[in-house]
Records
---
Amino acid sequence: MTDVAAGAVPLVDVWRGDLLESRHLGHAVICDARGVVEAWGNPGAVIYPRSSCKMIQALPLLESGAGAALPARRLALACASHNGAAIHVDAVRDWLADMGLGEEDLRCGTQVPDDPEEHKRLLCTGDAACQVHNNCSGKHSGFLMLNKHLGGGPEYTEPGHPVQKAVKAAFEEVTGEDSPGYGIDGCSAPNFATSVGGLARAMARFATANGSDARSRAMVALREGMVAHPEMVAGEGRACTELMRVMDGVAVKTGAEAVFVAILPKQGLGVALKVLDGGTRASEAAITALLSRLGALDPAHPMAMKRLGDPLRSRRGILAGAVKLAPGFC
Amino acid sequence: MTDVAAGAVPLVDVWRGDLLESRHLGHAVICDARGVVEAWGNPGAVIYPRSSCKMIQALPLLESGAGAALPARRLALACASHNGAAIHVDAVRDWLADMGLGEEDLRCGTQVPDDPEEHKRLLCTGDAACQVHNNCSGKHSGFLMLNKHLGGGPEYTEPGHPVQKAVKAAFEEVTGEDSPGYGIDGCSAPNFATSVGGLARAMARFATANGSDARSRAMVALREGMVAHPEMVAGEGRACTELMRVMDGVAVKTGAEAVFVAILPKQGLGVALKVLDGGTRASEAAITALLSRLGALDPAHPMAMKRLGDPLRSRRGILAGAVKLAPGFC
């Protein structure tokens, strides 16, 4: 394993007029159940998966039995980086209430919601954003449910807490690597590092899971929950939601600093990518290209073109440029 | 001259925990009146300066005599990428009215303002954003004033229009290069390409201008207008405004896709930088480092630390990481 910069290659270019204006480097890996099938950049580059690994962080919730009865919609929410729209906020509040818990039990911190309607409502009524609006509040609800089962203390985001120990164990098992370290994520939970190849391998395990054991059943339930409720995983206008809606059975998930993963059950493949500079426009364009390459996404669909294909325009609609794949990628 | 990717070097790193999470490559050049003093990356890399060159785009307005009587505040506005706050919107409306023109004469397009108060006002009253809110509406007011003087038609953003021909001529003269092409900017005006070194050379000319001829007087007036009214150049919370406020006589200006320039009259130096991936957090950190290196900015000042030095924290305030200079830069 090497640092994230080692071996990064051009993935996505931004053109304006006849000139290259900006370029994004990075790493992208496609794995099947046996290992790396295809890679651009360095599969050994160490990354923080950030929110792209929420389906891994949710494994102990299901494998422990704590979340065995959870409906698919809540499983999707446990894997979500949601917009804090009313549907997300209401669903988290309901989940917390069903556990006899409340907003004050969360440890994700307050976040102003990205959802335009909810944001407007808060601004114009003077209501305050709260921890339920945090894009990770579904994941944290899952942590709280696991914690009730494990009987741990209230500070469930501390790296030594039983919840996080369980997450780390699952994470290392499915990536097939000892994690070289952790960082504190925006929601204050530890985020375990792995290689891009390790993350793609984990996604291939989700893709090829067949329900033969507790882990495999958990993987199937989580990927199917995401696919069944794309609106819960992100929100209106967001890449995860819009891309899952126009694919058949493929789960995708973004992470901060331009990580993106995909789980392709029909192909038995997992994908992981990281854009070196953290630019989300590039991770969205790159995952769109890879999903198209693998036959999971129609590159001419408006939801694909929105990320890769539509021209860049000025504020008066004049054609200005385009986001393109860099030479040599995909 | 080469494309923007050729010779880019690491400028800014983002760390989380003990691991490098993201890296930004790019080019940075310091020039004096004679040429390049110091450079990282490739001074010959071709870039679009975007809004960083607004003081160049304003030169014909003053050199023609059309804007000879403009107060410093309007000169700052002509160089601005403003937030669309009330002070900016009111100032643009007044300027247009003084010319017997209105919002409908602008060709910059409508933009939802970044200023939180004005954004909230529009959302909660139902008032619509308009072209005056566009961050470039001050530059366009300057274009309109020049156009009145030149007697051109209303489509002053067209590349063949007398206003844009005058801008291109000034641009090529002060960069010392034939522009290799233009792109359409977000505000629909042409944006002429140059090398990073050419842009730094132009800034050095602004820095060393002494009022000896019409161009030199225009350069002094524009840099002094920016320095006298930093609040007009960007807005509250923005890097240009906050950095100019805590420096002595230094003008700085950001541009889309992570360009940043500085004009340092006391040192007789000009600076230009471009982050390859277009990441603004990196261009702000890099210009902060260069201004500190050149003795213009106290790196321990909170407004400097905000861009380079303050830790990254989770939403609950837990220490998570840091933005740092990449090895070898600055």
Note: The radius of gyration of chain B is 19 Å.
---
Amino acid sequence: MASGGTHSKAVLVSAEGHILAETDGPCTNHWLVGVDNCINGINDMVQRAKIKAGLDPDTPVCSLGMSLSGGEQKAAIQKLIDDMRERYPKLSQSYFITTDAIGAMATASDYGGIVVISGTGSNCKLVNPDGTQVGCGGWGHMMGDEGSAYWISHLAIKTVFDARDNLVTSPHDINYVKKAMEEYFQVSDLMGMLPHLYRIFQKSHFAGFCRKLAEGGSAGDALCQHVFTEAGKALARHIVAVLPRVHQDLFSGELGLPVLCVGSVWRSWELMKSGFTQVLSEAQAHGYGHFQKYSLLTLRQSSALGGAKMGAQNAGASLPLDYSANINVFFSHTFNQ
Amino acid sequence: MASGGTHSKAVLVSAEGHILAETDGPCTNHWLVGVDNCINGINDMVQRAKIKAGLDPDTPVCSLGMSLSGGEQKAAIQKLIDDMRERYPKLSQSYFITTDAIGAMATASDYGGIVVISGTGSNCKLVNPDGTQVGCGGWGHMMGDEGSAYWISHLAIKTVFDARDNLVTSPHDINYVKKAMEEYFQVSDLMGMLPHLYRIFQKSHFAGFCRKLAEGGSAGDALCQHVFTEAGKALARHIVAVLPRVHQDLFSGELGLPVLCVGSVWRSWELMKSGFTQVLSEAQAHGYGHFQKYSLLTLRQSSALGGAKMGAQNAGASLPLDYSANINVFFSHTFNQ
């Protein structure tokens, strides 16, 4: 199964790699919802998947491979697994947890590449052909999440606050964003935003405002377009951060450097494109000889599939995946020589 | 009484303006601790002050004037007062709530000036001689707090995270800050910071790291000095934000524009000075003809005293305060003509 900052998904896969059932659930990031809600949510999704596939819910699956946003810290992960074993002994025979980024990469390829997640939060992970990993970001909204839906929403709202305070002049008219904010959060002034920032703050709801900004950007509002351009720059900077550590073989495939783009913010690619391509072109111009081309990929399958594959591997089995059927190339760029 | 983001203070004042008793308490910002803890904390401090002054705790004081960080939103304030009346009928005959900034200003002057608070959080308020107010900031750590102890701590820690991620190059060596962070938060790596940012996040504890940075700055660490210089700039930008709205009479006193500096971060003035003076000089050079001089003031008395004065006024009485005894000028600057 796989979790993001807002939704989760479980896929039940046969030994031959066929998807038997899929189920959805709420956010299961244990940093955001706590360990209890995380475990209960996972158990609920997997049990529903067993029933949906016509299997006995009291028979454990062979392996539960989980690709979790927030699945980075070893001690916390071991505790999650221990708690699951104890509380839900009928859930699975074996358990494996990896991060959302690695689960996504395992869905797309067994050769590596760069994963850039931008959903509720953001994260970037380079996986080299030898399996070594280099991360950038993924620290959550209090210490990063640059280029994520949370960050885009925050940037737009902060621009309104700063303009009202005369603290920073907005680069564009704030009226569309201000009105959209008042509608989305059901407030009549900036003071009304305080509960949404503190007492009743919910990251996924706050981040959901990003959809309204995407609508505004598509309809031509300059400030909405501006925050997405900034998000494109921010996400590209994550790639630039890991570029020095990319193994040179990753540059030399047909697609150039493969960048797997995961998360709902990538649906607004057209709004982010100018900022994103600008930052990568600048970095390339400052001297990465091997870096001649890059391609942006999306998944056609849930990254839960990669989680399942890794869980099976961990349990000593192997799940055959048809990688080419799992991905879609939506943008390629070759730098001028 | 007066509250900040970390501590609170109550002063019991006689009709003649003499302080009969002072008591301390924890943070009573209702946004941070909730309405119940806020009310209980205030009641506890005031009742202890009555006992300390040899008064009957069951006899209400004439007036309870409160200067609260987070005391801005009218509906929330009315609810606080209603709850206090109902739950603690022996507390006071009348109630008055204003913000920490206005309570501080009322302690220093009845003519107005600019208050810049930088404690756990930050805030700026211009009070003109006619009583009109213009604010900048004060939205808490999710939407501002620029130049506050929280913000300084966050900036230093974010610099370490970004350097580790190769996302942003630090302007100075990060080793002192990284080590101080690991000691203060009792963690062995960046991953260990996640609970401090989320599950067990406490703004006042996070902000308390600022003291270690001040020590580092005084001992010569360049990154510590850098974050305080940035804080000086950020606080000065709050003043620049309200400058266009300053009544010209406020520029023409002996002190020039009076800026009342409240909160523990101002103890690190020497570290902030270069950034602060630079931003104000640039703003002055870009054309404020009346703005020839400014002076920075601190309070020698708790801003609870100004809260008490305003509470008394609201109850139809007046508390005589000797303003000159309440303030201290610690810096003056006259711009070159």
Note: Chain A touches chain B at residues 31-32, 34, 72-73, 135-137, 139-140, 142-144, 146, 157-158, 161, 165-167, 190-191, 193-194, 197-199, 201, 237-238, 241-242, 244 (CB under 8 Å).
